[in-house]
Design brief:
globular; 30 helices; alpha/beta; 2 domains; four-stranded mixed beta sheet; five-stranded mixed beta sheet; 17 strands; Anaerobic Ribonucleotide-triphosphate Reductase Large Chain; single chain
Length: 734
């Protein structure tokens, strides 16, 4: 660039929402959407992958362009996305989305009707997950756009000797070819348009990427940006850039040999990172650094350090960093990450290699394979290039199973019997707990069966030629990735609201069956009336110290019993398609959505309020501080919950102040990881700061908080979310 990054930063950090597209370069999004809907909805004898590929090609051939001369990642596409808050759906995604409901209603009418019944009472999401993908970046960078197109053509020629002309394998390859021919045409169009500007390096880069794989650091970064544009024009979301310290290091070293200056290299990373900040990607764009190999050798390199240094200096939270930790991790890296988090630049999640390796071993996958994992989305490991895990296939409101157990399978707020019909004349807590587990199994079994049945129609629901093209197995075998040609075709189920579930069961045990202060029938009536008239009992239950997350024997034992049951029944369960079931315990902000459709609960919670988040204590109930909370978590066997089980910490700035405070923080991290903890993320912030920001948002515009698996500006959160953070700070001594 003609000017260094910091001179250009004000002109690019809001570039997506401020983009002005050249109308001479294509058709407006509104007009494109009308045509795309016609192409995707019109009756046709063509296979769905071809319908999608033609729509994709039409979009790329006609999309409007914009060139921003102040960044090396200059080109933008007018996909009809609103960037005011977070990036919304593209016009192609809008056009193809109705297909999902159409297929499920047509192919699985009975199951779809039951699913809608579940969803109406707050059990939420049970479907094939197309939106959390990890492309095989090794394969993509090896061949580039032109190389993948040639690979698809070669594979088609080879298979056509034995396949019928309209076989599914040839149809798949034809869809890939149509898409990549459109990509090459678009790159040629961008190149021609770029010649109107004084951007010789950008023009050269685009020209090169239209004909060969990337060879320089700039080309690798540009390729990654463009690939995300292309994959994410549809439904998919590429939820990791991969292990960029490992992937990009050879290109960095080659550039240095060609004489590239260090400041130029650092500026390139700054432009790269700010591109994702400006793109306002919901939940941020993840990448992975560091890690160990199967023998425990540290994979940290000089680029790992550079990335952290540049990231810290920029004071951003998008992209976000997944840092793989292990016993031999470079001490400087761990201390650097701890200091960055302490300073409030906390869009970093620390992942425990050993916990991940043990989780994969429980699924029968050896370390020789799992050593190549990256983190997708928030906390979910995927073996890049070898595994499809559908990390969010089920998002399950476990609290509803307590409600069903108390009410014979009925939902209190609607009266719908969504759960298993069960007895209500329950005589003991053990009997209630057994009925709760039966309800849990009934609902989870349905979800797993429904997801697997949908998987048979994945290429009809959502063909994925761009994502699939990142895998050699898909190209060589002529199969969409959701026809499961990879080595490991797993599926992931998540159970949410566990602390609210446990605290509710504890309350029933203590106040109904042990102390007999209230009958089970009275509890039913109290919950149906949202505690009205029973506020004194509600206050006593709420203030009772037997709450999960405080290292108390009873709630921790009930949590262990629930998780052991889930793990024994589902972890590693063989799937009909091949592959196995993975489990996760992270809810992110679905705890709010779940709560809106959940009645009052026995732990004192009022109807429609949030249920507990991730593995956190019920909001405001972690009264024993961070040490007690961590001790409760470490009683979990994390090897059964490979799909995400984070430790969300909240520390006051005074706790990490100075060199001693930083050393104490590093020690806390090491203890958690050495005891088998899965992942750590959190906030170093005081309740007084959050209260001040709530009252005077204009003074705290850049105050960021770790909300779930991503960061947001505190002042842009809803008051409900702000209050949740403030309460957590207060009870944990902040």
């Amino acid at each position: 660039m003609k000017q260094p990054f910091f001179a250009n930063r004000p002109l690019i950090e809001n570039e997506f929402e401020q983009a002005i597209f050249d109308p001479s370069t294509g058709i407006s999004p509104d007009e494109l959407l009308l045509t795309l809907k016609e192409m995707c909805d019109a009756p046709t004898d063509e296979a769905r992958p071809i319908v999608f590929a033609k729509a994709f090609a039409y979009l790329l051939d006609n999309v409007q362009l914009q060139i921003n001369e102040h960044t090396p990642f200059s080109v933008k596409f007018n996909l009809g996305i609103d960037y005011t808050e977070f990036a919304t759906k593209s016009i192609l995604q809008i056009a193809v989305s109705p297909q999902k409901s159409r297929v499920r209603a047509e192919k699985l009418p009975q199951e779809y009707a039951q699913y809608r019944n579940f969803a109406s009472v707050g059990l939420d999401w049970m479907m094939v997950d197309f939106t959390h993908t990890v492309p095989n970046w090794d394969y993509l960078l090896k061949y580039g756009f032109a190389g993948i197109l040639q690979n698809a053509r070669d594979s088609r020629e080879k298979l056509s000797a034995t396949e019928a002309p309209q076989s599914e394998r040839l149809v798949f390859l034809d869809s890939v070819i149509l898409c990549y021919e459109a990509i090459i045409r678009l790159l040629e169009r961008i190149y021609a348009y770029s010649l109107r500007f004084d951007l010789p390096e950008f023009s050269k880069c685009i020209k090169n990427l239209s004909t060969r794989p990337p060879e320089t650091l700039y080309e690798v970064m540009m390729f990654s940006v463009l690939y995300l544009y292309f994959e994410e024009a549809g439904v998919e979301r590429a939820r990791s850039l991969g292990p960029i310290d490992r992937l990009y290091l050879p290109y960095l070293e080659a550039d240095r040999k060609r004489g590239m200056a260090e400041e130029e290299i650092q500026d390139l990373f700054r432009y790269y990172f700010i591109h994702f900040t400006a793109a306002k990607r919901f939940a941020e764009q993840p990448f992975t650094i560091c890690g160990s190999d199967k023998d425990g050798k540290d994979l940290t390199c000089e680029l790992s350090h550079m990335i952290l240094d540049i990231y810290d200096e920029m004071d951003i939270y998008d992209p976000k960093i997944h840092l793989r930790c292990h016993k031999a991790l470079d001490e400087r890296i761990l201390k650097k990450a701890a200091r960055i988090i302490s300073d409030g630049h906390n869009s970093i999640c620390l992942i425990n290699d050993e916990a991940v390796y043990r989780g994969y071993e429980r699924l029968g996958i050896p370390r020789e394979e799992s050593q190549n994992y990256v983190i997708s989305g928030c906390y979910e490991p995927i073996i890049m290039g070898r595994e499809e895990a559908e990390i969010c296939a089920m998002r399950f409101n476990t609290v509803k199973c307590v409600e069903f157990a108390l009410n014979g399978g009925k939902d209190i707020m609607t009266g719908i019997r969504a759960g298993l019909a069960s007895k209500t004349d329950i005589e003991s807590f053990d009997e209630l707990f057994e009925i709760f587990l039966q309800q849990l199994d009934y609902c989870t079994d349905f979800a797993l069966d429904f997801i697997e049945k949908q998987g048979r129609y994945s290429t009809l629901i959502n063909p994925s030629p761009i994502y699939s093209s990142s895998f050699a197995e898909c190209i060589e075998n002529g199969k969409d990735v959701h026809e499961y040609p990879l080595a490991y075709n797993n599926l992931s189920l998540k159970h949410h609201g566990l602390a609210t579930t446990v605290d509710s069961l504890v309350a029933v045990k203590k106040f109904v069956f042990d102390n007999k202060e209230v009958s089970l029938e009275e509890i039913r009536q109290i919950l149906a009336h949202d505690w009205q008239g029973y506020e004194e009992l509600q206050a006593r239950i709420t203030s009772n110290t037997e709450k999960y997350g405080n290292n108390r024997p009873l709630p921790d034992q009930i949590m262990s019993d629930i998780l052991e049951h889930i793990a024994d029944r589902y972890c590693g369960k063989e799937l009909a398609r091949g592959g196995k079931v993975r489990l996760g315990l992270d809810s992110v902000y679905h705890c709010i959505k779940h709560g809106e459709k959940t009645s009052a609960t026995p732990n004192g919670r009022n109807a429609t309020t949030p249920i507990s988040k991730n593995l956190c204590a019920t909001d405001g109930m972690d009264r024993g501080g961070i040490t007690a909370y961590m001790q409760s978590l470490l009683k979990i066997d994390f090897s059964a919950f490979l799909d995400g089980a984070p430790f969300d910490f909240m520390l006051h700035p005074s706790a990490v102040e100075g060199e001693k405070g930083l050393d104490d923080f590093v020690s806390l991290i090491k203890i958690f990881l050495s005891c088998g903890g899965f992942a750590m993320q959190g906030n170093v912030v005081g309740g007084e700061t959050l209260k001040a920001a709530q009252l005077h948002p204009e003074k705290y515009a850049t105050l960021q908080v770790r909300v779930c698996g991503w960061n947001e500006y505190f002042v842009k959160l809803s008051k409900l979310k702000q209050d949740m953070f403030i309460r957590q700070c207060e009870v944990m001594g902040g």
